Amino acid sequence: MDLVLDLIATLSRWSRSHLGDISLALMATLFVLFGPGLNAWVQRSIGSLNFVFRTLIFVLLCAVVYGLAIIFLTPYLAQALGSFNNYTLAPVLLLVFFVIGVLADRS
Questions:
Q1: What is the pLDDT of residue 45?
Q2: How far apart are CA 73 and CA 80, in angstroms?
Q3: Interior CA angle at 8 toward 16 and 93, to 5°?
Q4: What are phi and psi of 19, to 5 degrees?
Q5: Among 40, 19, 30, 6, which Cα is nearest to 82's?
Q6: How many CB atoms lie within 10 A of CB 4?
Q7: With contact defined as beta carbons under 8 Å apart, do 11 and 90 qualify?
Q8: 33-71: string of b/e by CB count within 10 Å (b at 16+)?
Q9: Do residues 78 and 18 touch, judged by C-beta distance below 8 A?
Q10: Is 49 helix (H, G, I), strand (E, B) or coil?
Q11: What is the pLDDT along the chain (107 residues), one digit of tens a residue?
């Protein structure tokens, strides 16, 4: 049992030093998974507008909203993940990546 706990603590310590990159990967993956649904909703919502306005709104959504979300939400996600202790961080990360994998497989 001590070997397993030591392995979890070692993985958590390694993960803690890379939380910024892990959070960025999680955010990008979530946008890849849920972005098409959000884009389709926006297209349905603005479908009656002029072509120029539709294009402008869609470009703003993709460039500004997604870009700002990745830039500004990633540190908050890293901070939230950093609040886990060394015995829970690695299992939580594995669980989150597993759930994202299941969601990706279903879509």
A1: 87
A2: 11
A3: 55
A4: -65, -30
A5: 19
A6: 8
A7: yes
A8: eeeeeeeeebeeebeeeeeeebeeeeeebeeeebeeeee
A9: no
A10: coil
A11: 789 889 899 999 999 999 999 999 999 999 999 988 888 898 888 888 888 988 898 888 888 888 999 999 999 999 999 999 999 999 999 999 999 999 999 88
Pick from 8, 20, 2, 1: which is nearest to 88 by CA? Answer: 8
H helix intervals, the chain: 2-16, 19-45, 51-59, 66-82, 89-106
What DSSP character marks residue 84? Answer: S
Q: What is the pLDDT of residue 1?
A: 78
Q: Could you tell me how many residues make up the chain? A: 107
Count of domains forming the chain: 1
Could you tell me the two tokens for 56? Answer: 């402008």
Give the residue numbers spanning the domain of 7: 2-106
Report pLDDT for 18. 95
Model confidence, pTM: 0.82
Backbone dihedral angles phi then psi of residue 60, each to the nearest 5 degrees: -60, -40
